[in-house]
């Protein structure tokens, strides 16, 4: 009788970790193969934020006063980099929900594999997708006249903050996808992505909003990441005297860590409960 590829219960913690990582990489390759077979969907996902940049920068940019009289794209692009990290939430939710609807998740449950590997594999695949999507956005920004004005170290730190935000939001998407009753629930959540994105400093100064709305916008994780990234890239930002405006760099790390601390264990625990 043949033996399973993995033992059902690896002995040492190191063995369990190796088992989980090997299974997660297998799931990652499976997700990447799907993108190779359906490149149109992936490419549209990369180009959609570029369309938003062209629409807002071209149609509305001339009507918005930017700090120091700099071009609107100099202000807009760092915010759009952050917003692109939020847009990835939708594709993550849809992928997880689709797997559940097609019975793929049930198939994973029946296999002798680590229960954390499915969500971890999805995380790795979507992070790779986000890296490419961010590179596309940077290329579009450079073509439109945006530039970073700091050193390469500051630019890499800005990219790190953006990917940290994406990592945190990815676990939100995985959790919602696991608990969603069907695609219609995901559609409802997708609609909410837009208010979250617009209620920020991505496009305009929160000071132009009513006091309570501007306060919410200033504390939005997108806003603090956009502000920190603008500073690192040397791009103009509105700033302010409030605590959150003065500590955007700190909160651009604290918010993603808090979101991850909540939703990563929730995602793994939810998948494990589904196994029962």
Automatic annotation (TrEMBL):
Gene Ontology MF terms in the entry: ABC-type transporter activity
InterPro entries to which the protein is assigned, alphabetical: ABC2_TM, ABC2_TM_bact-type, ABC_2_transport, Nod_factor_ABC_transporter
Superkingdom field: Bacteria
One GO cellular component term: ATP-binding cassette (ABC) transporter complex
Domain ABC transmembrane type-2: 40-274
Localization per record: Cell membrane; Membrane
Cell membrane recorded as keyword: yes
Alphabetized Pfam families for the sequence: ABC2_membrane (PF01061)
Keywords: Antibiotic resistance, Cell membrane, Membrane, Transmembrane, Transmembrane helix, Transport
Statement: the UniProt record of this protein carries the keyword Membrane: yes
A GO BP annotation: response to antibiotic
Membrane topology label: Multi-pass membrane protein
TM regions (residue ranges): 43-63, 75-97, 117-144, 156-179, 185-204, 211-229, 249-268
PANTHER family, A to Z: NODULATION PROTEIN J
Similarity section: Belongs to the ABC-2 integral membrane protein family.
Full protein name: Transport permease protein
Originating species: Planobispora rosea
Lineage: Bacteria, Bacillati, Actinomycetota, Actinomycetes, Streptosporangiales
């Amino acid at each position: 009788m043949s033996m399973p590829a993995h033992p059902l219960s690896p002995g040492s913690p190191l063995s369990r970790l190796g088992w989980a990582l090997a299974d997660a990489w297998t799931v990652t390759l499976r997700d990447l193969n799907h993108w190779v077979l359906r490149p149109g969907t992936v490419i549209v996902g990369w180009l959609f934020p570029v369309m938003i940049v062209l629409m807002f920068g071209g149609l509305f940019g001339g009507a918005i006063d930017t700090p120091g009289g700099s071009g609107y794209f100099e202000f807009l692009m760092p915010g759009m980099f952050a917003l692109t990290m939020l847009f990835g939430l939708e594709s993550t939710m849809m992928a997880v929900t689709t797997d559940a609807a097609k019975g793929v998740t049930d198939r994973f449950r029946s296999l002798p594999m680590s229960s954390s590997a499915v969500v971890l594999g999805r995380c790795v695949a979507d992070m790779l997708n986000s890296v490419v999507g961010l590179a596309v956005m940077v290329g579009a920004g450079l073509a439109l006249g945006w530039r970073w004005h700091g050193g390469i170290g500051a630019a890499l730190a800005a990219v790190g903050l953006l990917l940290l935000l994406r990592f945190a939001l990815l676990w939100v998407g995985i959790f919602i996808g696991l608990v969603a009753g069907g695609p219609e629930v995901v559609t409802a959540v997708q609609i909410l992505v837009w208010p979250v994105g617009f209620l920020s400093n991505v496009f305009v100064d929160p000071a132009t909003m009513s006091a309570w709305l501007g306060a919410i916008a200033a504390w939005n994780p997108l806003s603090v990441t956009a502000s920190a990234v603008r500073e690192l890239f040397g791009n103009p930002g509105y700033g302010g005297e409030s605590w959150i405006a003065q500590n955007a760099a700190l909160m651009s790390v604290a918010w993603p860590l808090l979101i991850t601390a909540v939703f990563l264990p929730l995602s793994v625990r939810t998948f494990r409960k589904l196994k029962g």
